[in-house]
Design brief:
The complex is a heterodimer. By secondary structure, chain A is mainly beta. Chain A is 0% helix and 50% strand. Chain B is an all-beta fold. Chain B starts with a strand and ends with a strand. The interface between A and B is medium-sized, with 28 and 25 residues.
C-alpha cells in the first residue's frame, strides 16, 4: 500500500510548546513539501526539500522548522514562535524535478488549547 | 503573488449539469495542474496541462489553457453528487521547484 502518510490526524498544542508533525512516503520520491491551509483558503508553502539533507524556505517559513535526514521522511516542527498555528497541514511529494504531479498525504489538523 | 486565482469561489449545480471553473495566474509557467479536495482531506491530482498544450481531456474532465491570457478552465461534464468538493489550480513558477495554489472553487452538486 504505497503513498504518503501523515500523523497524527489531530494534534493539540499548548501555549509555548513545540510540536512535530510526521510525514512519511514510500514512493521513492526525491522532493517533499509542507503546506499550510487555513479555512476556505488555498495552500501556502512552508518548506520544501529536493534531496536528502537539503531544504528551502517557502513563503511562510517563520515559526516552523524541518529536517530531511532520510528520503522517506520530512517532519515539520511547529515552534512556539508560530503565534497562529491553528490550521490544516498537508505534506506532499513529487518524483523530483520540474513539471511533476504532487501526491498529497491526508493532512494533520493542528489545534491550540 | 504568483498564485493562481479560481473563479467562481463557489458553484452550486444540479446533478447532470456541467460545471465550469476558471483559474487566472500572473507569470510564465511550465505547467498548470488541477486538484480536487474533499472536505477535511488531502488533495488529489486531476490533470496536468503543459504550457505548450491548449486542451486536455481525462474522462469527464476537460481543461483548457490560454497562456496569452494567463488563464485556464476546468469543465466537468455530466456532474455527479460525488463531484462535490473544492477544486484548486496550481501553477509552478518558471524554473523553480515550487507550486502556487489558488484559493479554490467550492463545487456543490445537488442530487
Amino acid at each position: 500500500d504505497g503513498g504518503i502518510t501523515q500523523s497524527p490526524k489531530y494534534l493539540f498544542r499548548k501555549e509555548g510548546q513545540n510540536v512535530t508533525l510526521s510525514c512519511e512516503q514510500n514512493l521513492n520520491h526525491d522532493a517533499m513539501y509542507w503546506y499550510r491551509q487555513d479555512p476556505g483558503q488555498g495552500l501556502r508553502l512552508i518548506y520544501y526539500s529536493q534531496i536528502v539533507n537539503d531544504f528551502q524556505k517557502g513563503d511562510i517559513a517563520e515559526g516552523y522548522s524541518v529536517s530531511r535526514e532520510k528520503k522517506e521522511s520530512f517532519p515539520l516542527t511547529v515552534t512556539s514562535a508560530q503565534k497562529n498555528p491553528t490550521a490544516f497541514y498537508l505534506c506532499a511529494s513529487t518524483p523530483g524535478g520540474l513539471q511533476e504531479t504532487q501526491y498529497f498525504g491526508p493532512g494533520t489538523r493542528l489545534l491550540v488549547l | 503573488s504568483q498564485q493562481g486565482e479560481e473563479d467562481p469561489q463557489a458553484l452550486s449545480i444540479q446533478e447532470g449539469e456541467n460545471a465550469t471553473m476558471n483559474c487566472s495566474y500572473k507569470t510564465s509557467i511550465n505547467n498548470l495542474q488541477w486538484y480536487r479536495q474533499n472536505s477535511g482531506r488531502g488533495l488529489v491530482h486531476l490533470i496536468l496541462i503543459r504550457s505548450n498544450e491548449r486542451e486536455k481531456h481525462s474522462g469527464r474532465l476537460r481543461v483548457t489553457l490560454d497562456t496569452s491570457k494567463k488563464s485556464s478552465s476546468l469543465l466537468i461534464t455530466a456532474s455527479r453528487a460525488a463531484d462535490t468538493a473544492s477544486y484548486f489550480c496550481a501553477t509552478d513558477q518558471y524554473n523553480f521547484n515550487k507550486f502556487y495554489f489558488g484559493s479554490g472553487t467550492k463545487l456543490n452538486v445537488k442530487p
